[in-house]
Predict the structure.
Amino acid sequence: MQKRPLEAGIHRKLGQELSYSSYLCLDKVLTAQQPLSDPMHHDEMLFIIQHQTAELWFKLIIHELRAALRNLADDDSGLCEKNLARVRQVQHQLFEQWGVLSTLTPAEYAEFRHVLGRASGFQSPQYRLLEFLLGNKNSDLLSLFQHDPDTTEALQQALQQRSLYDELLAFLARRGHAIPDSVLDRNFAEPYKETDAVRACILKIYQDPQHCWTEYALCERLIDVEESFQLWRFRHMKTVERIIGYKPGTGGSSGVGFLKQALDLTFFPELWTVRSEIGLAD
């Protein structure tokens, strides 16, 4: 194999200015993996990196969703669509990650599972924030973070603010659609409840996409995000089933049974129910 010479213009004195490693703080990122098994079990590194990278992707999704909320509130549907398109691509990365964790066999995981104690992904503050932003509001979950005032405050703010769906409905109202005031001025800390009036508005949009293209396209981008989220949930459940079967989760949940319940949750109900009505004769 031929040796490729370094070009003359390549910078070599990296200690004197910003470098790739210092910009990305790799000294912190690459030393954040601290296995607890003793002696260290080979597969614990996989388990740690799997969850750390998921948290980084969650951080980016939250970043994009917050931008989407701002852009929608400012009636900038184009930028909102761009944010949601990026979210969907990140969700694809999260979905594919489960394939990596699935290489962990039940016997291998059993060798170090005990070091987790009661630690569980259910306790992820970012995941809770992500679900609140999408609309799965549940004030009971705040009790998980009572030991962390900053996290509790951040989640409390997201709980009380409009979710992505709430912002969509407010956007539709400003576009002239008959969204009821009871929906627009509701208590956003409570879970959203499907209404006939909103379903009728959404149905009109889907029945006339040419004249409601902006609204129609936004609705479809939200469907993209929820479908990807549900696929992620399903893959999560099947990966857990593959690795621990029906044993309880480390955080005290029923494990697979608890994860299956999440598959029935929906963020944007009317966007799904109108699909059964589109194309039917009056």
Notes: The chain is about 55% helix and 0% strand.
